[in-house]
Specification:
The protein is α/β, with parallel strands linked by helices. The protein folds into three domains: about 25-245 and about 290-300, Rossmann fold, CATH 3.40.50.970; about 335-515, Rossmann fold; about 535-660, Rossmann fold, CATH 3.40.50. The protein is built from 24 helices and 18 strands. Helix 1 packs across helix 2.
Length: about 675
């Protein structure tokens, strides 16, 4: 097979697209074209006619700046990505954006670009494959039998997230994860020698990976390395491919100038002449290349058909497993989940993190594909599912993850598991460490992935651990992420409703914000059902039902009970018409009809006080210009939780003082 003509065609497409857009990264696709040609024409199992085939190999371009590499491959392979889209590279509303975007582009498995994220997503995909195999494969029926291939670059290797994720991958012995390292020694500023002298081979060997080093332009070495990686499954594989960025460009090969800018018309013409491409033709694809990919499509279609026949025989032999497969792949939740929720005694205060743990145990018993873990904080986060087993080295039948102290990788691995499908994934840490996970949370929101974050220890009431562990700005920063649903339940019962809402949110990620300290369990015979949380905000209590309130007290989480105590005293002592509004989720509340929102927060009532143990930013939308916010505009303090709370004014007395000042 003439891989060279395929590789050079890819180089030509990459040069032309970047040149036409006057924007992009031509060097990486040109440098990795040889390896990509061998991978896609011989080793990668997929079907362009069915991009969602469950048993396809996953291909992740972690070095997403080189997006024209994967767009060229998808086009040539026969995906629904016509030449017109390659010609519209990086243009508004094209299907070839600057960095690969999921799910907008067919055949793209994840959104990449922030370096190291794709590689870490791939670890999650490889974990999900092994977990599905452990659950559904039976003797003679390997219905789950695929691999995860990654192309990563020097930037991916430098980013800290790759250290976290690849360390865990080695620990778990993910033998079906194959990472190809485009080792071209070039970044935007110049040679990697400026800032990077790691011995990557020894680093990955220390992680427990199998490592090969090859000439990334030698087709025999490429094929041999991929064959070896595919045939060995006892540990993950790193193929260090020594390559030349902008391979074939007479002046700019091995130059950082080819990293993030067009080569220029003269250099493109000279490169095409050197590579044997027609210098006067743009977006040129020889018929020979079309024919090679057409033959490969036929071969892959046969493999897909063989798998379909195997799957049908497996389903007939194991109908219970087949039904479990259908439900887990569809994330089909049981209809009566409310009946599974535990009840909580109003006489016994409970931390919402503890309530969450009890809720999780009950829900996990009903949803076998609900899996997750914690960044070494399960005893504090209450996220360990008892009796469900662990994900451990070479063992993937369990449901509990031990991510270690790796919040950044945990969040990205969760994205990979969600992208793979087959499991509903949650991950937990302290709210203050949401900062470590934020880049992956942002991408989860961008990709609309239904992952669930359990963030505990949600405020200054962490107490003696002090300001380093007291999240002040994190709640506001999470609310600032478009597409992320943030829920801060007011008590234990509402925590159950929050979990149900998170599970039913299949259009994006959800963050549950939970207390460390015990807080009152609100008596739902006196207050509205916790199911009202599903509307994001609701009237919790009012002194004069049916009358127009004189003042509104708005709160979330642990501050709802504070607002209730202040409101009841304000009504009894001062005779005021008071309404308490519980706003556990701003995002859900804002999705409600305007009429409902105006009923809960009437525009005519201008006296408003918001109470939340965090920065006030954002509450302006609810309190308006004449209202007041009781929040925390500085970092916390170390001391007993009650003393810290009183110091910062998170008390009924302070709420009363501020409320009275508005009259």
């Amino acid at each position: 097979m003439d891989y060279r003509i395929v590789a050079n065609t890819i180089r030509g497409l990459a040069m032309d697209a970047v040149e036409k857009a006057r924007s992009g990264h031509p060097g990486m696709p040109m440098g990795m074209a040889d390896l990509a040609a061998v991978l896609w024409l011989k080793h990668l199992k997929h079907d362009p006619a069915d991009p969602k085939w469950p048993d396809r190999d996953r291909f992740v371009l972690s070095a997403g700046h080189g997006s024209m590499l994967v767009y060229s491959l998808l086009h040539l392979a026969g995906y629904d990505l016509p030449m017109e889209e390659l010609q519209r590279f990086r243009q508004l509303h094209s299907r070839t954006p600057g960095h690969p975007e999921y799910p907008e582009v067919p055949g793209i498995e994840t959104t990449t670009g922030p370096l190291g994220q794709g590689l870490s997503n791939a670890v999650g995909m490889a974990i999900a494959e092994r977990m599905l195999a452990a659950r559904f494969n039976r003797d003679g029926f390997s219905v789950v039998d695929h691999r995860t291939f990654v192309i990563a670059g020097d930037g991916c290797m430098m980013e800290g997230i790759s250290h976290e994720a690849c360390s865990l991958a080695g620990h778990l012995r993910l033998g079906r994860l194959i990472v190809i390292y485009d080792f071209n020694r070039i970044t935007i500023e110049g040679s990697t020698d400026l800032a990077y002298s790691d011995d990557v081979r020894r680093r990955f060997e220390a992680y427990g990976w199998e490592v090969q080093e090859i000439n990334g332009h030698d087709y025999a070495q490429i094929d041999q390395a991929l064959t070896r990686a595919v045939s060995s499954e006892d540990r993950p594989h790193l193929i260090i491919a020594h390559t030349h960025i902008a391979y074939g460009a007479p002046r700019l090969q091995d130059s950082h100038e080819a990293h993030g800018a067009p080569l220029g018309a003269d250099e493109v013409r000279a490169a095409k002449e050197r590579l044997g491409l027609p210098p006067d033709q743009s977006f040129y694809v020889p018929q020979e290349v079309r024919a090679m990919f057409a033959a490969r499509r036929e071969e892959l279609a046969r493999r897909h058909a063989e798998w379909t026949e195997l799957f049908q025989r497996w389903a007939a032999a194991h109908p219970d497993l087949a039904e479990g497969w259908r439900k887990s792949m569809a994330d089909e939740l049981p209809a009566d989940l409310e009946s599974a929720l535990p009840s909580f005694d109003p006489a016994k205060p409970v931390a919402t993190r503890a309530a969450s743990g009890k809720v999780l145990q009950a829900l996990a018993a009903r949803i076998p594909w609900l899996v997750g873990g914690s960044a070494d904080l399960a005893p504090s986060n209450n996220t360990y599912v008892a009796g469900a087993g662990d994900i451990a080295p070479g063992q993937f039948a369990g449901r509990n993850f031990h991510f270690g102290v790796r919040e950044h990788a945990m969040a990205a691995i969760m994205n990979g598991i969600a992208l793979h499908r087959g499991f509903r994934i949650y991950g937990a840490t302290f709210l203050v460490f949401a900062d470590y996970a934020r880049p992956a949370i942002r991408l989860a929101a961008m990709m609309r992935l239904p992952v669930i974050y359990v963030f505990t220890h949600d405020s200054i009431f962490v107490g003696e651990d002090g300001p380093t562990h007291q999240p002040i700005e994190q709640l506001a920063s999470l609310r600032a992420i478009p597409g992320l649903t943030v829920i801060r339940p007011a008590d234990a019962t509402e925590t159950g409703a929050a979990w149900l809402t998170a599970l039913r949110n299949q259009a994006g990620p959800t963050a549950l914000i939970l207390t460390r300290q015990a807080i009152p369990v609100l008596d739902r015979t006196q207050y509205p059902s916790a199911g009202a949380l599903a509307r994001g905000g609701y009237v919790m209590w009012e002194s004069h039902p049916g009358s127009k309130p004189e003042i509104l007290l708005l709160a979330t989480g642990s501050e709802v009970s504070v607002a209730l105590r202040a409101a009841q005293e304000l009504a009894q002592t001062d005779g005021r018409r008071v309404r308490v509004v519980n706003l556990p989720s701003w995002e859900i509340f804002e999705r409600q009809p305007k009429r409902y929102r105006d009923q809960v927060i009437p525009r005519a009532c201008k006296r408003r006080v918001a109470i939340e143990a965090g920065v006030p930013m954002g509450w302006e939308r609810y309190v308006g210009l004449t209202g007041r916010m009781i929040g925390i505009a500085r970092f916390g303090a170390s001391g007993p939780a009650a003393a810290v709370g009183e110091f910062f004014g998170m008390t009924p007395a302070k709420v009363l003082e501020v409320a009275r000042s508005l009259f």
